[in-house]
């Protein structure tokens, strides 16, 4: 479990004792193909690291009175999801779905926030890594939006 945490994009660069502390508040959870892990707008009670399988992050909206669902990102082994567990208002901004049989490492938001509050180095590393992840997702969203707008204008 510690190797997965160490290799994750959120916890890379943590010290061994910090990794152990994160492992102590982690639990493996299983999902089947198509299972919804969380829904946009729900309370962000946990964050996750993909152990096996994949997770699609999607957002939905209505266009011309028809529902539209777009995939923003696919998270693979070592990738994390649920960064909303760290940022107010602590609500998920996307919905997450399992692709195939998927094992995730679940970290309760209260536990990880408490670790970050108690250990400045751990908190700094986690927040820096989350900022990098959010930046990458925002860039993907911009690219998707540009593609949609170009299609609309043509």
How are helices and strands ordered from N to C?
HHEEEEEEHH
CATH topology: Jelly Rolls
Regions with little confidence, pLDDT below 50 for 5+ residues: none
Instruction: Please identify the top-level CATH class.
Output: Mainly Beta
Q: Name the CATH homologous superfamily.
A: Jelly Rolls
Please tell me how large the radius of gyration is: 16 Å
The 3D shape can be described as globular
Largest sheet, strands/sense/barrel: 6 strands, antiparallel
- Please identify the structural class as seen in this structure: alpha+beta
Total DSSP helices: 4
* Total domain units: 1
Distance between the termini: 50 Å
Helix fraction, binned, reads 25-40%
Q: How much is the average pLDDT? A: 92
Tell me what portion of residues adopts beta-strand conformation: 25-35%
Structure summary, number of beta strands: 6
In the CATH hierarchy, what is the architecture at level 2? Sandwich
Task: Chart the SSEs and their pairings.
Blueprint: H1 2-7, H2 16-24, E1 26-31, E2 36-38, E3 46-63, E4 66-75, E5 80-81, E6 95-108, H3 109-118, H4 120-153
Antiparallel strand pairs: 1-6, 2-6, 3-4, 3-5, 3-6
Can you describe this structure?
This protein has a single domain (2-153), classed as Sandwich (Jelly Rolls), CATH 2.60.120.10. Helix content is 38%, strand content 34%. It is built from four helices and six strands. It has helices at 2-7, 16-24, 109-118, 120-153, and strands spanning 26-31, 36-38, 46-63, 66-75, 80-81, 95-108. Strands 1, 2, 3, 4, 5 and 6 form a six-stranded antiparallel beta sheet that branches. Helix 3 (109-118) packs across helix 4 (120-153). The mean pLDDT is 92.
């Amino acid at each position: 479990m510690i190797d997965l945490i160490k290799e994750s994009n959120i916890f890379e660069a943590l010290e061994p004792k910090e990794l152990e502390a994160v492992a102590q508040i982690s639990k493996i959870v299983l999902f089947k193909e198509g299972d919804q892990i969380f829904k946009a707008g729900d309370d962000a009670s946990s964050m996750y690291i993909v152990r096996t399988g994949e997770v699609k992050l999607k957002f939905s909206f209505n266009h011309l009175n028809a529902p539209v669902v777009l995939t923003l990102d696919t998270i693979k082994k070592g990738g994390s999801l649920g960064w909303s567990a760290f940022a107010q208002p602590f609500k998920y901004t996307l919905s997450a779905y399992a692709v195939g049989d998927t094992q995730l490492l679940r970290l309760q938001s209260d536990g990880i926030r408490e670790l970050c509050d108690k250990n400045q180095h751990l908190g700094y590393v986690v927040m820096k890594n989350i900022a990098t992840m959010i930046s990458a997702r925002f860039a993907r969203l911009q690219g998707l939006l540009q593609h949609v707008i170009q299609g609309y204008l043509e």
